[in-house]
Amino acid sequence: MKKIKTSIYILLLIIISVSKILAQNPLIDHNGTATFFSEAPMEDIEAINRKVIGAIDLQKGILAVTMQIKGFHFDKSLMEEHFNENYLESDKYPKASFKGMIKNFSELDFSKQGNFEAQAIGELEIHGVTKPLKTMVQFAISGDKISANTSFDISIADHDIKIPRLVIKNIAEVVEVKASFNFSM
């Protein structure tokens, strides 16, 4: 009887350990942040989205990000309305996403504390148009936390976002995008 109890106990420990490992992979942050900044002659425009979902698979180096376009908020409500209705057509194209991988993943050690940089390559979909994207990601590992930050530029014409001539001096042709995530291991 004691042998059966010991076997059941060992089996339970194995199941719990495997479940814990599977639960860690991939790591997901449901409260990531994405911002964009447009610097134009007439005005600067900035928006922030605090409900960005980011995932990283530490076994394979795969990255994924998805966000609702309507999650971007502006200082001026009229800007937000024009962004969603006229430029990003967020009812027709409700999400933006990135799917990719860390290029030099085999050279990195995510179990080591500290900061390092890695190149992410993949495809960025905005406004229903998918384009290749290469960007550097700054990783910081402290305790059981991994933070990831990146910054890159996007040409709005590359994603078929049309700006009326009347407001062409209000919106930059290239906008700066920043994203940050915090993962728990």
UniProtKB/TrEMBL annotation:
Entries under InterPro entries matching the protein: Lipid/polyisoprenoid-bd_YceI, TTHA0802/YceI-like_sf
Domain Lipid/polyisoprenoid-binding YceI-like: 56-183
Pfam family membership, one: YceI
Ranges in a coiled coil: none
Residues making up the signal peptide according to the UniProt record: none
Gene3D superfamilies (alphabetical): Lipid/polyisoprenoid-binding, YceI-like
PANTHER family: PROTEIN YCEI
Name of the protein described by the UniProt record: YceI family protein
